[in-house]
Design goal:
This protein has about 250 residues and is mostly helical. Helix content is about 75%, strand content about 0%.
């Protein structure tokens, strides 16, 4: 049976982020949340280049590693060939000295080989972690924007204090604002997955998984607010304007 490989496409994610940004600007032209989405869009534009750098083999580094391994093997062989063995044969003391010297050489050469062999993977891993941390910052900024968006703010009995945040959103607008936050968090995790889609490193994958757990938790918290909106508004009936807005595709 023929199977189809399922992959995320960076360009499609970028277009989705762009549409989300335009939707935010249309509905909330003065909101800073749209600027956060624009920053996410900038990251998405840079992602294909980052992904290409991660999956592209570093041939110069690999050739250097192979050359070091070859030199190490030649040094060991040359050392063994030039051993000046006693004419009367090996006694225990001489044998211990030879083994100790050989082990020291093997350890140092082996450490150099391990360092060079893992260097390429460690450089790529660090690149992934830096990119993921940048997206993690976006997720936390989105969470900061939704903190003051309380479902109780649309209730008629709300009493504001002099230091209360400015609350001007209707029930429908608040629902759309919170929904935009959840969409952006989802796109943050999708963008992060692109870094490890073709780079199978456990540490890098764990960093991406941690980010996905973060965005999922934040989105769940926001959806709890959305589910509370009808109750907070006193089950207010939907107005004709809300009905038109709710029917908009991709609103």
């Amino acid at each position: 049976m023929k199977t189809t490989k399922c992959t995320l496409i960076a360009e499609e994610i970028r277009r989705t982020i762009e549409r989300l940004y335009l939707r935010m600007k249309d509905r909330f032209p003065e909101s800073n949340l749209a600027n956060v989405c624009l920053e996410l869009h900038t990251i998405a534009e840079q992602t294909p280049e980052t992904v290409e750098w991660i999956v592209r083999p570093n041939n110069w580094l690999r050739f250097g590693t192979y050359g070091f391994i070859l030199i190490g093997v030649l040094v060991l062989v040359e050392t063994l060939v030039q051993l000046d063995l006693p004419a009367g044969g090996l006694d225990l003391a001489v044998l211990v000295q030879l083994v100790d010297g050989a082990l020291n050489s093997v350890v140092w050469i082996g450490a150099g080989i391990v360092f060079l062999v893992t260097l390429e993977n460690r450089r790529k891993r660090n690149r992934v972690i830096r990119a993921v941390n940048r997206l993690r910052c976006i997720a936390h900024i989105v969470d900061m924007h939704q903190l003051a968006k309380d479902p109780d703010s649309i209730a008629e009995h709300l009493f504001s204090t002099p230091h209360s945040p400015r609350r001007v959103l209707t029930q429908y607008e608040l629902a759309r604002y919170l929904d935009y936050c959840t969409e952006m968090l989802s796109l943050v995790s999708k963008t992060a997955f692109l870094y490890v889609q073709d780079f199978h490193d456990p540490v890098a994958a764990e960093a991406v998984n941690d980010l996905e757990d973060l965005t999922t938790g934040l989105a769940s918290k926001i959806w709890q607010k959305i589910m509370m909106l009808p109750t907070a508004a006193g089950d207010r009936p939907t107005t004709p304007a809300d009905s038109r807005g709710a029917g908009e595709e991709g609103a």
